[in-house]
Amino acid sequence: MKILKPAKAGTYESNDIYIMIQPNDNGIKIELESIVMKQFGKRIEEVIKETLEKLEVKDAYVVAKDRGALDYTVSARVETAVKRAGVEK
Which of these CATH numbers, 1.10.246.10, 3.40.50.150, 3.30.365.10, 3.30.230.10, describes 7-84? Predict the structure, then answer.
């Protein structure tokens, strides 16, 4: 799938994550900011990458601002942003 336009999902509320996704020509790039970066930063990036792989997104620039979201919330926000980005196969 290819990202056609910038899109976002989520909020800055506690226990949520804000995801902005936009087109990129050089693979997957993730910029993560989190209040629990030291404890869970790697896991949050893994969940974002796994979700993008599941959706067959090969090229995307993702900005993620986490406020303590659980894995399923991270995955849901990424999926919503991808679908809003007007993807094509």
Answer: 3.30.230.10
